[in-house]
Amino acid sequence: MSETWTEQHIPDQRGRVAVVTGANTGLGFETARMLAEHGAQVVMAVRDVEKGKQAAARIDGDVTVQVLDLASLESIRSAAADLRAAHPRIDLLINNAGVMYTPKQTTADGFELQFGTNHLGHFALTGLLLDRLLPVPGSRIVTVSSIGHRIRADIHFDDLQWERSYSRVAAYGQAKLANLMFTYELQRRLAAHGTTVAVAAHPGGSNTELARNSPAALRVPFAVVGPLLAQSAAMGALPTLRAATDPAVLGGQYYGPNGLGETRGYPKLVTSSPASYDLSTQQRLWTVSEELTGVRFPLDD
């Protein structure tokens, strides 16, 4: 595999349908833009439709906008119904949207906001759309994680919603670790079907709006060092795009930048933390996620 994989390496995407969550800004916008410019029919699944329409107008290609609030199971079910009605097949589901370091808040269903949005929302959406992907050869589900999955990260089954105490950094770490564990367990369950694969990616340190909720102690360092270390959103989107389109990608792989500490650079195959590969925790998280969302996947265990 090339270590300088760029936008020019994206294969022709004509005839493919791609759903990208959080596509109106940052990494999601660049992912949607590059897929559309390579011929994909792209659905920008966003919380704010007006911002989505403004973003879509900046893209040259076949782009539509779908309202989706990942912090609401009702919205997720409604969006999935719309997408299923509009698209008999889906080739790519890019679980990109996310929130980071938010103050203590809950979703419409009472979940801690970072875990509820970043993990449970995408878990539910994937399960509700999966039968549109399963019949499609070469279809992929790409879930975006983060370097943050290594930072104070664990799956706190005794207090998943951080009701006893709250650390926005540790809660983000839990959510991003959950993204990886979901990918690995999903791939295990998909393997018997032989068509759809689940892959993960992370952008390194990218210059996006995601860090706007950083704790006060981190804002000044981010403001000073961020512009020096962070790469553009277009570069940060490349690991996701490689995971989504490179013909050599295999299910269960994880892609990130090839530079120092995986903070910047061109996308390459990387490894996640040892904790992320724990099979029993993956399976327990899957069961809990089904119980919390009420979504069951059309797969054999």
Automatic annotation (TrEMBL):
GO terms for molecular function: oxidoreductase activity. Keywords: Oxidoreductase. Pfam families: adh_short (PF00106). InterPro entries: NAD(P)-bd_dom_sf, SDR_fam. The keyword Transmembrane helix does not apply. Belongs to the short-chain dehydrogenases/reductases (SDR) family. NCBIfam families: PRK06197.1. This is Short-chain dehydrogenase. It comes from Nocardioides luteus. The lineage of its organism: Bacteria, Bacillati, Actinomycetota, Actinomycetes, Propionibacteriales.
